[in-house]
Structure formats: structure tokens, C-alpha cells
Specification:
This protein is an alpha/beta fold and 276 residues long. The chain contains ten helices and 13 strands. The protein has a six-stranded mixed beta sheet with strand order 2-1-3-5-6-4. A six-stranded parallel beta sheet has the order 9-8-7-10-12-13, sandwiched between helices. Helix 4 (102-113) packs across helix 5 and helix 4 packs across helix 9. It is globular. Residues 102, 105, 128-133, 152-154, 157, 190-193, 195, 217-219, 240, 243-244, 247 line the site of NADP nicotinamide-adenine-dinucleotide phosphate.
Length: 276
Amino acid sequence: MTTKAFVIGHPINHSRSPLIHGTWIAAHGLDASYEAIDVAPDDLPRFFERLRQGEFAGGNVTIPHKEAVFALCDSVDPLASTIGAVNTLVIDDGRVHGTNTDYLGFLGNLDAGAPGWSDGLETAIVLGAGGASRAILVALESRKIGSIVVLNRTRETAEKLAAELPGPISIAPLEAFNDIAPLAGLVVNTTSIGMHGSRFENMNLALLPKSALVTDIVYVPLETSLLADAKALGLRTVDGLGMLLHQAVPGFEAWFGVRPHVDAGLRAKIEMTLGH
Ligand code: NAP
């Protein structure tokens, strides 16, 4: 019998997940399918009833459902609760379990693109305090980084996040970047700045140590202005596409029983869809 998985969202036609999982299904010769399903917010409870009937092994959840599915899952793992979002569902014996694989995607991407990046890392700067930032803070906490400084435009959002998440997190405004930069071994952009040609103003990357790593989770464009500026200064960089690819690995393994690999062929395939 074909093992089925899905991604739900509203709208859903932009999702690259069917291409990622479809590529792995074909590569492993599995009797499996992965389909995009448009589910409007009002239809979510009915969709969960369908899930409990056992038609699917599981699936992904994307905007706008990542928070709403919490109340509908039969269980949610503690890290997803800490992050405040569910992006992966696994159905077992009529029960729907929710988890979040974004933090694993972030770690997998940096481990592949900058091996050893967290060894002895004292200070990390995280730009942004939105949903993605929470997943990244959980990821950084898991690597026991000495100090994590969250810089955000809106102070209240950052305060809430620092109060709710574990780890050595402090907060400051974006304008504090140049003061903290000389101490930072890692800079992560989790804001949407970088999309549509937008860029950070008055941020002097030349103040970072020469060994610093700069990474952006925005992947459209693939080379954001932050990454381009960091590269021009000779700093190490890792782009955000790998996070999208690596976050798909645990779900695929849970539904289909095979651990897939993120390789250059898959990356090239997804890269071709960027900007479309
Ligand atoms: P979100 O919850 O809406 O958070 C947006 C963040 O960006 C907030 O910290 C917000 O600051 C900040 N921001 C937005 N516009 C700004 C501006 N003009 N100036 C200063 N700060 C600004 O969004 P999200 O879900 O965290 O996603 C953020 C980005 O990450 C998106 O581009 C998304 O596509 C990307 N992402 C990538 C992956 C991946 O797999 N690579 C995964 C998830 C998300 P305020 O608090 O001040 O509003």
C-alpha cells in the first residue's frame, strides 16, 4: 500500500516541500506519495478528523496553521511547545503527534556548511525575535553557546521571547549591533530583512572577528545583502536554503522509514525554483 504524506497550508501552491520529498521518494524508489493540500483555517478540524482515519503517515504544516494545529494535535513534543509552532505531524495508530523540525534544519545546515561552527562559540548575535528566531534560539541553546544576544526592532517582542525560552539570552535594539559585533563568533539573521532587496542600515560587519560566521535564514534571494557584505569582507557565510532542506529530513524519516540525504542535486533542483 502506498504510504502517503502531505503539506497543508493556505495558500499552498508556493510550497517547495512536494519537490523536496518527491525527489527523495523517487531516489529511494519508495511506494509513497507527498501532496500539497490547501486547507482553509475553518477546515482544519475536519482535516484532523481525516488524519485520525489513518489515510496518511504524516505531513508538514505551513503558514497560517503552524500555531493553530497545537490545539488539534493529540500530543505535541516539548520543544515544539517551547518554540510555539508545529511544522511536522506524525500519525500513529489514529493519534496525531506534532513536532517542530526547524531547529534541526538550522543545525543541520550549519553542521554541513560550516563544520565545527559551535565548538567553543562564546557569543552569538541573533537578529529578530519572531517565530523563526524561537526555533533558532532553541537550536543554539542545545549547543551550549555561552551567550546569545537577540537584537530586535520591537523591544516587547524580544522581552517576551527571552522570558519564555531557556538559555543565556539577553536582548538589545538592532542599533546595538556595532557594540556587540567584536565579541560575536556567529551572526544569524532571522528577520525578513534581505527579502525584496531590503538591507540592514548602519550595521558594520567589519567589526566582527575575522573568524566569525554569518548566516541568514532568508533564502529568497539566496545571497542576501547581509551575506554578500559578509563575503566581501572575507567572513564565512552559510545561506538559508539548507535550513529548508534539512528541516525536511526528520519528517521524511518518520513517515517513510528511510533517512534521506541533502545533497547538491536536491539543492540545485530547489534553487532553480527560487524567484518563481
Ligand atoms: P515573523 O514571526 O513575522 O518575524 C519577523 C521578524 O523580522 C521580527 O523579529 C520583526 O521584528 C523583524 N522585522 C520584519 N521587518 C523588519 C524591519 N523592516 N526592520 C526590522 N525588523 C524587521 O517571521 P518569521 O516566521 O520569524 O520568519 C522570518 C524570516 O525567516 C522570513 O523571511 C521567512 O521566510 C524566513 N524563514 C526561513 C526558514 C528556512 O527554512 N530557511 C524557516 C522559517 C522562516 P519586530 O518584532 O520588530 O516586528
